[in-house]
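--- STAGE predict ---
source: upstream dedup step, 1 unique chain passed
mode: sequence only
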Amino acid sequence: MASEATPRINAKYLDSFTNQTVRILGKVVSLRGETATVDANGTINVHLNRDAHLSLNNAVELVGKVQPDLSIKAFQSTDFGSNIDYSAVEAVVDATHRYKEIFYDSND
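--- STAGE serialize ---
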């Protein structure tokens, strides 16, 4: 069975990946019950699963599906702590979309 590609995106790419599984790394800016707000070059609302253990102001990597309202339904989340170079994260996202034929299939 082939694994599904999970392109790295940030908030500005959400509308291009509706109903697709993606990977996002951003900073947790709020937590409320089973929802979180993450800053990933813009604000993203996240619907967490019960296994999520996030900390405010830490980096988190999310794997989830982009919903029609551009929120994320998280399948998996990993706390990356507070020592993250967000400019490097943005460089990886940029490279992912500049050279998308390497990282994921596009419908262009």
